[in-house]
Each structure stands twice: as C-alpha cells, then as structure tokens.
Design brief:
Helix content is 44%, strand content 17%. It has helices at residues 13-24, 36-45, 60-68, 93-114, 140-160, 178-191, 195-204, 214-223; strands spanning 4-8, 28-33, 49-53, 73-78, 118-127, 166-171, 236-238. It has 248 residues and is of the alpha/beta class. It has 2 domains: 4-175 and 216-238, Rossmann fold (3-Layer(aba) Sandwich), CATH 3.40.50.720; 176-211, no CATH class. The model has no long low-confidence stretch (mean pLDDT 89). A 7-stranded parallel sheet has the order 3-2-1-4-5-6-7, with helices on both faces.
Length: 248
C-alpha cells in the first residue's frame, strides 16, 4: 500500500535509526518531536523526511499530527524515550505520573492523531521496554509506564484488528546506546558500585553476550512493513539478545 510512515520520537537515538531504515526502504517519514533544531538535522541527513514539531506529552499534539499527516499512513511508530529513572524509594510520585503520561498517554495521542489515516494493511507499532514485563528494583518509572503500554497495545489490537490495521509491540530490553550508558551511571551511583559492575550485570543476563543495537531494532521495524508481518498482529516481539529466559 502507498502512504507515509509517522515516527514519534524521531530525533532520539532509536527514532533516528528507525527513520533512516524506513527512508532507505523507500518510505517517506513524518518525523515527530519537540526539538525543532534536532528535527532539522534529521531532515538534512535523510531525504524523504518531513518535520512535525509536537510535544506528544500534551493533547495539543493530536491536532498537530492530524493536520500534518498527508494521505494514508502505512505505519505509525511510537519510539519516544523516557527520561524518568529511579526506584520506588527514590522516584518522585509526580515523575511516575509523568512517565505514564508520556508513554501511555503519548501512545494514545499518536493513535488519535493518525487513526483517520489508517487503512487495511497499516501498522501501529510501539517500542515498549521489557522492564514493563520483568521490572527490577530500580525501575519504577520505566517498569510501570511500559507495563501500561503493553496493556494498552493489547486493547488497541482488539479494536483495530477487525479493521485490518495490525498492532505490534516491540520489547527490545537494554540496547547498546549512549542513553544506556547514562542509565548504567545512574544505577551505579544509586547502588554505590562501579559502572563496570553494572554494565557486566546487563551483559551477563543475555545469552548472546552483548546488547542489541539500534540498527537491529530499526531493521525489525522496517520488516513489519512486509505483508507477511500481519501474522504478528497483537503480539509482543522480544528483541533482547536472549535476556528473557522464560518459556511462554
């Protein structure tokens, strides 16, 4: 089917990788983000990208998205990052609410902004961290917010599947990014240990021996454009290098 892709969080590390993959595959991309300067750099480096300056954390973004979409949407991707960190002992309650507003509320705002442009064969994709499935003691924000995303995406799958729109939730787990390094540093400070110890702990949880890369996640997102990916509707796709060991 013809049409564009919409990527929320497009100027972040993961969003940039996804945008590059989609444009390399021949898709046009509406790149959504709060930072006009960062979006301008993304557009300069990626022909076929249109910027859309919008804060997905507020409801005004719905109308902005609706007005910016130009024709059918082949794929809408929610890849907004989450800056909130800390354990249940250290996180501010308001920060926990802000995390849920950004991840779950932002996902709904994306849906409301593009739903009139979704057609049979369209994809609705959310990047939801695996901490929503298996949280640790230091993951109050991402654990709670991503758990809400998994639940919400299941609801959306039941609503839109009968219309021919497929939904896909990607759970990458820890990914090899500069942001991951900042998370390691923050956890090392909270635990009072060396960063190398925290990093080694992440690597030890994988059976691959390394963390997945941004390009690997972006490859998966682009692959969902294939017609055969419809069979993955409503499911959670785990891309974590073997971090999760349970049989489900």
């Amino acid at each position: 089917m013809s049409g564009q892709c919409v990527v929320v969080g497009a100027s972040g590390a993961m969003g940039t990788a996804i945008t590059a993959r989609l444009t390399a595959a021949g898709s046009t991309v509406l790149a959504v983000g709060r930072d006009a300067g960062a979006l301008a750099k993304l557009v300069a480096n990626n022909p076929g990208v249109r910027p859309c300056v919008a804060d997905i954390g507020v409801d005004d973004s719905i109308a902005t998205l609706r007005d910016s979409v130009d024709g059918p949407v082949r794929m809408a991707v929610f890849a907004a990052g989450l800056p909130v960190r800390g354990s249940a002992d250290t996180i501010a309650p308001d920060d926990l609410g802000a995390a849920v507003n950004l991840k779950a509320g932002g996902l709904l705002r994306l849906l409301h902004g593009v739903r009139d442009s979704l057609e049979p064969g369209s994809r609705f994709v959310a990047i939801a961290g695996s901490l929503g499935l298996e949280p640790g003691p230091l993951d109050a924000g991402p654990g709670t917010a991503n758990a809400a995303v998994f639940n919400l995406m299941r609801q959306i799958s039941a609503l839109y599947g009968p219309r021919g729109v497929t939904t896909h939730t990607i759970a990458p787990g820890p990914v090899d990014t500069p942001r991951m390094e900042s998370i390691i540093a923050a956890q090392a400070r909270e635990r009072g240990v060396a960063e190398d110890e925290v990093r080694a702990g992440y690597l030890a949880k994988t059976s691959l021996g390394r963390l997945p890369t941004l390009d690997e996640i972006a490859w998966l997102v682009a692959t969902l454009l294939q017609p055969e990916a419809a069979a993955l509707h409503g499911g959670v796709i785990t891309v974590d290098g073997g971090t999760r060991h349970g049989v489900q």
